[in-house]
Design goal:
Number of domains: 3
Helix content: 25-40%
Number of strands: 24
Structural class: alpha/beta
Shape: globular
CATH superfamily of the largest domain: Vaccinia Virus protein VP39
CATH class of the largest domain: Alpha Beta
Strand order of the largest sheet: 15-14-13-16-19-21-20-22
Strand content: 15-25%
Largest sheet: 8 strands, mixed
CATH architecture of the largest domain: 3-Layer(aba) Sandwich
Number of helices: 20
Length: about 700
């Protein structure tokens, strides 16, 4: 690899960046040249594309120019992004590619995907620009959701524009119909995460909107293809991939048929690899009523089939085959997957999921270690589990002193296997909703190529219960066996737990008693008739921890402050050390779930029996508790991004250094960019850092368990 860090100064000089510290409200800094531009929907599309051109396609920023003016039919017209031959002067004769950007369609509904013919009117502007530049071969028209790529073909008598599925990487290598299977793939990363999410949306929209397939069925068809893509990547064995689409195949009936004949057998192999089945367990006792085949594994049954048309299949394969899923960022894949899952499960079943910022904060503060067993007993689609995987991968890279995406193939494969082993051995989840269990398992498979241990069960009935995952969970995650637990349990008075068989197992379901002189409560006789689920989850989660185990749980603020809930707080203090409490603003859940409620993240550490006995004898230990209030979480009540502002009301900016490996003249070249960008106003990021500082100066109370990572 050629390291060209010395080119940084030249890049910055050409970008013409000044020492900007703030910009007026309603403006943003252009990614290409660093200059302030008006913030609107069209500009946001262009900025996303510019970042993706650098981070996904490996096109050097110094070869791009925004709003490039060029003569077209006697008039001067602007190309949204002009891309020139590497290192050449920015003149029309050196123009190789051109991008036309328009504003993104509004609303979260399904947008029907247009064909090139249906978008013919919009594409005229792109064709005019391409025709006016003799050496411009490639064009892209996009509104952020629709992407139309064109290749210009020039003959002695005519200029034509051919639809293609994508355009070349930065070194202008693009597979032909015969060799597209070995073309280089794009890698989605956190610096340009939007396009993979858009790709998943486009695929789902095409099946649901263009094919008229019901939303849930469209979701399943997309999952079939995602699994086929991952399976193909994982089983190359030195052979070219089979999951690919030539640049023009999707646009002809013959090409669509060829893609179908290539892909459908892969899915049949996927079904054989991951069959939905029940397997026998060695510890079954039929005399006790155990089911000899009670553990359900796998994903697909014989009846699962690719049922979309060859046209739709070709579209999806063309979209998905552009990416290398195995090397793409885990967090980006998880966010893209959850967006599609959320639209299908949340919308139809009233489900909602923990916002990404809260999940990351909880995982960062709990800091699970490679040899610790971690559990989310209300895992939903697996948000906490995926964040834990990403946390562990970062740790593996840090321990090996390997930067993200800089690892060799051998190092990559080694960490991949290490991560799979961790997921299969130490990571666990459970949920009452079997559809969410399946979604979580698939999320784990996409992130770590591992089945994972996600159980379909009622966590509040555990270890009793009748659901399919209960008996296996009883063996793998016994009460008192978990090191780290993180969860956002269902909560609310509108879904109370009233089953006496459940309530009788919880101290916190007992009837309230009288306060004693020392401030403690004597429990009353019997049990309440109904208790909010989050209260019972507190006790169940503590019971799941081993002595010295840690947990983070999202709770409504009332539990921590209402006078009537003091017995709950007394129970917590009796059984746990309070490590931290973080107040969350209402925006956290009002955007994601339209739930107008104040919540907190409560972090606890389970006391040992000896510690509880000592306190009962009056040996009380004073210790500091980390307290924080998050006033801003990066977005407002409408979901709009919030930025830090100066006293004058201007948006503050910071310098960010980005590196990317691109290919020039057949050689890998590392490029470093120094860019100014607005600072997202998110207290959660700072709280995580402050907690680590606090904990480095104030060791956890109680049983010593581990060293805090620096």
């Amino acid at each position: 690899m050629v390291d060209t860090l010395n080119e940084q100064a030249a890049i910055e000089a050409e970008a013409g960046q000044e020492e900007i510290t703030a910009i007026p409200d309603g403006m943003l800094l252009d990614y290409i040249n660093g200059k302030p531009v008006k913030d609107n929907s069209k500009e946001q599309v262009r900025q996303r594309i510019a970042r993706a051109l650098f981070h996904e396609y490996g096109i050097s920023v110094e070869d791009m120019e925004p709003d490039f003016r060029m003569p077209v039919g006697g008039k001067n017209k602007k190309a949204g992004i002009a891309i020139f031959r590497h290192g050449q002067e920015h003149k029309v004769e050196n123009l190789r590619r051109v991008v036309v950007c328009e504003k993104e369609p509004t609303g979260r509904g399904i947008t029907k995907m247009r064909s090139h013919d249906q978008a013919k009117r919009d594409l005229e502007a792109l064709k005019e620009l391409m025709a006016a530049a003799e050496n411009c071969e490639w064009g892209l028209w996009t509104n952020g959701l629709e992407f139309f790529f064109l290749q210009k073909e020039v003959t002695r008598f005519d200029v034509s524009f051919k639809p293609v599925g994508d355009w070349p990487m930065g070194d202008e290598t693009l597979g032909t119909r015969d060799v597209a299977s070995i073309a280089r793939l794009r890698v989605a990363n956190e610096k340009a995460p939007e396009l993979l999410k858009v790709t998943f949306r486009r695929c789902h929209n095409f099946i649901h909107g263009n094919e008229g397939m019901p939303k849930d069925k469209a979701f399943k068809q997309l999952l079939y293809l995602i699994f086929a893509k991952m399976y193909d990547e994982q089983n190359l064995n030195g052979q070219p991939p089979r999951f690919w689409a030539g640049p023009t195949e999707q646009f002809t009936p013959e090409g669509q048929t060829a893609i179908s004949e290539r892909i459908k057998p892969i899915f049949e192999e996927v079904k054989q690899k991951y069959p939905l089945q029940k397997v026998k367990r060695d510890d079954c006792d039929p005399e006790k009523g155990d089911d000899l085949e009670s553990e359900e594994i796998g994903f697909f049954s014989d009846s699962d089939k690719i049922e979309i048309t060859d046209r739709a299949l070709a579209f999806l394969v063309s979209e998905l085959s552009k990416y290398d899923f195995s090397r793409s960022d885990i967090d980006v894949k998880g966010a893209a997957y959850q967006e599609i899952v959320g639209d299908n499960l949340r919308g139809d079943r009233g489900q909602y999921f923990t916002p990404k910022g809260v999940v990351k904060l909880a995982v960062a503060m709990l800091d699970p270690q490679p040899n610790e067993r971690a559990l989310d007993p209300a895992c939903g689609t697996g948000g906490f589990l995926i964040a834990t995987i990403n946390h562990m991968l970062s740790r593996f890279r840090r321990d090996k002193n390997i930067k993200t995406f800089d690892e060799s193939t051998a190092e990559f494969l080694s960490m991949k296997e290490e991560l799979k082993c961790y997921v299969e051995t130490y990571l666990f989840g459970a949920d009452f909703d079997n559809e969410l269990v399946k979604a979580s398992k698939m999320n784990l498979m996409m992130s770590a190529n591992a089945y994972g241990n996600v159980f379909h069960m009622d966590s509040l009935m555990f270890p009793d219960g009748h659901l399919t995952g209960n008996k296996v969970a009883e063996k793998k995650i016994k009460l008192g066996s978990i090191d780290v637990l993180m969860t956002n349990p269902p909560f609310g008075s509108d879904i109370p737990i009233s089953d006496p068989m459940v309530l009788n197992n919880f101290d916190l379901a007992g009837k309230g008693g009288k306060r004693q002189g020392d401030g403690s409560f004597i429990r009353g006789d019997g049990y309440q008739t109904a208790v909010a689920p989050e209260i019972l989850f507190i006790e169940r989660c503590v019971n799941w921890l081993r002595p010295g185990g840690r947990m983070g749980i999202v709770l409504p603020d009332g539990i921590l402050g209402n006078p009537g809930d003091e017995p709950i707080r007394r129970w917590i203090l009796k059984h746990c050390w309070v490590l931290a409490s973080v107040d969350l603003p209402v925006e956290v859940f009002i955007v994601e779930a339209n739930v107008n409620i104040l919540t907190s993240l409560l972090f606890l550490k389970k006391k040992t029996d000896q510690e509880m006995k000592a306190e009962a004898l009056g040996q009380v230990t004073d210790y500091p508790v980390f307290m924080a209030v998050a006033e801003k979480v990066g977005f407002d009540r409408r979901g709009n991004t919030l930025y830090k502002r100066s006293p004058d009301g201007e948006d503050l900016v910071e310098t960010v250094i980005e590196t990317e490996t691109i290919r020039l003249s057949g050689e890998k070249v590392k490029r470093t960019l120094r860019r100014k960008q607005k600072i997202v106003d998110d207290d959660l990021l700072e709280i995580a850092k402050e907690y680590q500082k606090f904990r480095s100066q104030n060791p956890e109370p109680g049983l010593p368990t581990r060293k805090v990572a620096p």
